[in-house]
Design a protein that fits this description.
244 residues, alpha/beta, Rossmann fold, 2 domains, four-stranded antiparallel beta sheet, globular
Length: 244
């Protein structure tokens, strides 16, 4: 895994422009290794662009993004970093196992690895079912199983719980927490503030600006509020100079 490394991701002066929109204009950020970090903010705040920059898929104007000690997108990170996008990319007419096996084959991994990750996400009983026949939460777990292939050090999940009911969302967050306890670094994006309390660390974004890099307890302590939504709004108001 990551040994004594304290930061899984280090970002300095990141500048990204998409079309006519300047998404980031000098972003600095450190993301700790071996922890569950939530990228929290409204739609359009830059969460997906940040994730793509960390993975090495985003064209950037400037700045440095270092991932596990290497430049983002470096070939040697290919088997150490996995990314699950909002668009799942699964084959709905294939079984759960065949979906996972397809991606394992691309990565040159054995069948035993397919069975391991399917069991890890609690889908052993559904392995032979078609992907389009499982529940919404189970469908999302297929993507997570694929992300676990090869025992990566860093997993990035873009809005993995969107559209799910509270029970299914809670189940997935419990799974993310277990992975972090096992030493995996997870970066999970969400626009739902009540999921912030499930993270070890928080990166709060708004319109491409870093509102805060903190913890759930630190967010509430800094604002003196008991509600994460209200605490986030309070930090935004402070940044904008808005008086209560």
């Amino acid at each position: 895994m990551l040994g004594a490394m304290t930061s899984a991701v280090t970002i300095r002066g990141l500048r990204v422009r998409r079309g006519r929109v300047q998404v980031f204009d000098g972003l600095d950020l450190d993301i700790a290794a071996g922890r569950l970090t939530g990228l929290i903010g409204p739609s359009g705040c830059g969460k997906t662009t940040l994730i793509r920059s960390i993975v090495g898929l985003q064209i950037v104007q400037g700045g440095d993004v270092t991932v596990l000690g290497r430049p983002a997108g470096a070939p040697e990170l290919r088997h150490r970093v996995t990314y699950s996008a909002q668009n799942d990319g699964l084959y709905r007419d294939l079984s759960v196992r065949d979906n996972v096996a397809y991606f394992a084959q691309i990565a040159g991994l054995p069948g035993s690895e397919v069975d391991r990750v399917i069991a890890a996400v609690g889908l052993a009983g559904q392995a032979k079912q078609r992907a389009d026949s499982v529940s919404g939460g189970q469908f999302r777990r297929i993507s997570l199983a694929i992300a676990l292939l090869g025992r990566p050090d860093l997993i990035l999940l873009d809005e993995p719980t969107v559209g799910l009911d509270p029970v299914l969302r809670a189940d997935l967050w419990d799974m993310f927490a277990r992975l972090a306890r096992d030493g995996v670094t997870l970066i999970v994006s969400s626009h739902v503030m009540d999921e912030a309390s499930r993270c070890d660390d928080l990166v709060l974004l708004r319109e491409g600006q870093l509102v805060a890099a903190t913890t759930p307890a630190g967010l509430l302590a800094e604002t003196g509020l008991a509600d994460a939504d209200q605490a986030f709004l309070e930090l935004i108001h402070r940044a904008e100079g808005v008086q209560p």
